[in-house]
Amino acid sequence: MSVKRKIITATAIGALASVTTGPAFAQEAITIASWGGAYQEAQRKAWFDIVEEELGIEVLEDTTSGAADVRVQVASGSPTWDLVQQGNYTCALLEKEGNVEPLSPEVLAVPGIPDSMKGDGWIGNLVYGAVLAYSDEAYPDEKPDSWVDFWDTETFPGPRSLRRSPVYNLEAALLADGVPVDELYPLDVDRALDKLREIKDDVMVWWSSGAQSAQILQDREVDMAMVWNGRAQSIADEGAPVSITFDEQVVLSDCWIIPKGAKNKDLAMKAIEVMSRPEVQARIALFINYGPANLDAFDTGVIPEDVAMGLPSHPDNAAKGFVLDAKYWAENLDRLTQEFDFFIQE
Amino acid sequence: MTAQDVMVVSGTEPRNERALRRQARGEQGRLVALSVPAFFLVGALVLVPMGWLFWLSVYGSDGFTVENYTRLLHPAYKETLITTFELAFLVTGLCVLLGFPVAYMASQLGPRWASLVMLCVLFPFWTSLLVRTYAWLVLLQRRGVINSWLMDMGLIDTPLKLVHNFTGTTIGMVHIMLPFLVLPLYASMRTIDMDLMKAAANLGASPVRAFWGIYVPQTLSGLGAGVILVFVLSLGFYVTPALLGGGRVMMWAMQIERSMAVYGDWGAASALGVVLLVMTLGILWVLRRLTGASAGSGGH
Amino acid sequence: MKSSMTDAGATSVGPAAHAPDTEHSLPISVQSLVKSYGAFRALDNVSIDIRSGEFMTLLGPSGSGKTTLLMVLAGFVRPDSGSVTFGEREILLLPPHKRDIGMVFQNYALFPHMTVAENLAYPLKLRRAGKAEIRDRVERALDLVQLSGLGGRGIHELSGGQRQRVALARAVIFEPRILLMDEPLSALDKNLREQMQIEVRRLHEQLGITTVYVTHDQREALTMSDRIAVINDGRIQQVDEPRDLYEKPSTYFVANFIGETYSLPVEVSGSSVMLFGQPIKTPAPPEHGDRHQALILRPENLHVFEAEPDPGMNSMAGTVRQHVFQGDSIVTYLTVAGDREIAVRRQHRSDETLPAPGS
After folding, report:
1. pLDDT tens for residues B205-243?
2. Do domains A2-127+253-319 and A128-252+324-345 have the same CATH topology?
3. Of A61-65, B284-288, C106-110, C224-228, which gets the smallest average pLDDT?
4. Is the Cβ of B200 closer than 8 Å to some Cβ of chain C?
5. Hey, what's the signal peptide range on this chain (chain C) (predicted)?
6. DSSP code of residue A143
7. Cβ atoms of C67 and C46 closer than 8 Å
8. Which CATH number fits domain A2-127+253-319: 3.40.190.10, 3.50.50.60, 3.30.420.10, 3.40.50.360?
9. What values do phi and psi take at C269, rounded to 5?
10. What ipTM was estimated for this complex?
11. Which residues of chain A make contact with B253, given a CB cutoff of 8 A?
């Protein structure tokens, strides 16, 4: 009896859904796939609602777990997503592979987004940083504030953690070895690996997920780590004696791409344009601990000053670090990952 | 009634021969028909994907290529392969060392106690792999239960490095794999006639000699099954080494995942899969020969 | 050694009497053995002496304690108290592998991962015999049990009878001076069992080894043994030669257990015995004076007459119920004194006419 009713309800909803997306209906729609969870909820409130209002379209949502989804959709010939969120260098990678639509000049012309955060087929939307985080209990007096300090196991003894990936470890190693920020790219890989070799024994954990990096800091499995600022911030907010410094941070951006062959690519293009505007970009900081990719957003007055100071893309913080060269990594990821794997296992 | 009818009935020719043969053929046909779904299942779920896997590894966008295999010559892959097999061997060996006494004890107990022991052995099966793995972190990490306890007791001054390395990975994997060894071993031990041990003692064998010379050879089939299960499953392990290995323990499965998720390189991932498959089959073949030979010639 | 042997009450030596060969056999003396499992007494103060070279059968129903006694001898059951000596040596405290006795198990307990020859060689290897000696003795043992040429066979390739022979050969190949057998023939079918009974007996005579044989099959016990110890409720009921046991059972249990019997109540007063109010003649006066005792009848000792028999014979009136044809004999079931059933067995002769049922 109840089973029957459920089926009927489900059928009714299915019918409704097909009507909404059907061509006979006046309102148009795009489908955006992002990381889901609190992250996507914040995007909905900060951006998607504005897009619906501004363009008079409906924004349908889905979730993605990475580049593989996009590749599969593009390979299928008819992607169901019109706009997809990806992590920093993956956008450049997908562009290099030819899996994205080139962005319109209007989108790329939106002021405020630095050139280092966009390519021909992708544009940054959220900024976070790979920062140095440390335990206040381990270092109560003098605080580490540079990669030189991270490498200085005499002054700052204790186990460390780095991400299990060559990306931004090589940069940090070169900075610790005295390479100036503006001469980092192209990376001197051998020099960077030699430098990493110096602290290899002190790196207790090569973390592979954000949750893991937070856990080892919280449990004091390590005393110092290079982690994403949001992860360290959230355990600090919960009361863990953990601090972060934006000094020499690696500024990273998540980004939009339009899968090659997307059905509503023109609408998607318009949506990106709307979401890239400074005043819209700024809204994201109100809902989640990430900064806007558009640096002009900090001049809109939308973000309260105390919140702004905690964001990696705040001009003061951004100035302390440098932006990851996503194009470089898109070119070299496979080769350098092999090198790095070998380094880890040697 | 004609004369011919009479002859048939009178039995100068074998009676019902044709009909009986037809019946036998029908039965055979039905048996063949019954196995058709199995053939399709094996074909669709095993042969086709494996063939496809192999095809992907040798056929790229520019036609046939061995590139996916030559890239595996990079020393990083060699190291990964060594680590993978090293870990699988170590885990299998430890599972045998730990599992044998457990299975033996359970097989010697009365049914009630035996089922209690087996319950304990199986208990980990009902907990999520992730939960178990994180639980090991709580126990093993620098400020974990074991290190705190040892330091409080004054047994050590600096914490032992129990996790985020090969040691921690091994501990976690042994814990997960143990039931796979104990179950078939226990099953084979249950069937061993304990009179054989009495006979051995009666013939003059000390308990130790009887155990090694008579009991252990009887367990080889169950032990072999368990060893192969544990070994093959260990080769494909992913989650535990990733969480307990501290990023140092690189398994073959991680390379496959990375090839797929990060680079989207089906060819590379397929080649990795083919190599693992071939190596696994090779090892299985050797194991089979070893255990088969020792089971057949135990007394020589 | 001989001084420790005591006469256990038998008046004559068994049919296969031979000089006790102390080189190949030892006497066994069991004294006051007690074994309890909780409230259950498996062995209740058991004492028995087994002569050197004797074939002694422990006979009893299941649960009687006969197997427990054998297992105590083998060392697999630890008794509560008592003493067991082989020759003059107390062995109760020795572990099984130091007792140096051969044993044939009920299910043979052959090692399935070894060939026939390897099974036979096992006890020799444990005794560090040389390779040539092992080969030689395995060969001879196979000859002994008529399995020459089967040394390379796997255990699973053997028939039940062949396995039985291998088990026998393995139990004696290291020349133990005592051989224990735990219902070794119970798994064989009837024909094979009878054949193996002869075989086992032949082997015993050939080796002269002191043998303790456990069975619940009284026919087997009667066929094979020099002497039989009937055990029930953890106690030895009677130890005697087969013939004496059959003809002169000393307890009601033994009488009922050995052979086919029917019992009728009798009243005893003094030396006279009354059956259904009629006095009957007995071969010997009753052993004790209880008023109510039992008369044990064996079907083969009775006869059916249609006419009034000789007044000199013991007789009673009865009604024929049924004749059962059993090939070599015919059993006639009768009711006497209203509701008591007895049976009469006689040799089958084809020319004979039987009294009709109901008469």
Report:
1. 999 999 999 999 999 989 989 999 999 999 988 888 988
2. yes
3. B284-288
4. yes
5. none
6. P
7. no
8. 3.40.190.10
9. -140, 115
10. 0.77
11. none
**Was domain B74-296 assigned CATH 3.30.310.50?**
no
Q: What is the pTM of this model?
A: 0.77
Whole-angstrom CA distances from A297 to A294, B276, C37, C47, C92 are: 6, 51, 89, 106, 96
Measured between beta carbons, the chain A residues lying within 8 angstroms of B141 are 216, 219, 221
Give backbone dihedrals phi and psi of C45, rounded to 5 degrees, phi first. Answer: 60, 60
The count of other CB atoms within 10 Å of the CB of residue C189 is: 9
- Report domain extents, chain A: 2-127+253-319, 128-252+324-345
B-chain CB neighbours of A97 within 8 Å are 264
User: Which candidate in B188, B192, B193, B202 is best for mutational testing of the C interface (most C CBs within 10 A)?
Assistant: B202
Note whether B251 and B241 are within 8 A (CB): yes
The reply to whether CATH 1.10.760.10 applies to domain A128-252+324-345 is no
Calculate mean pLDDT across residues A4-33. 52
Residues 6+ apart with CB under 8 A from C217: C185, C186
- The domains of chain C, with CATH numbers, are 2-247 (3.40.50.300), 260-347 (no CATH)
Tell the burial category of B142 from Cβ atoms under 10 Å away from its Cβ (0-12, 13-18, 19+): buried
Check: CB of residue A50 under 8 Å from CB of residue A280: yes
Q: Prior bond to A186 cis, omega within 30?
A: yes
Whole-angstrom distance, CA of residue B182 vs CA of residue B226: 7
A88 close to A323: Cβ distance less than 8 angstroms: no
Domain boundaries in chain B?
1-35, 74-296
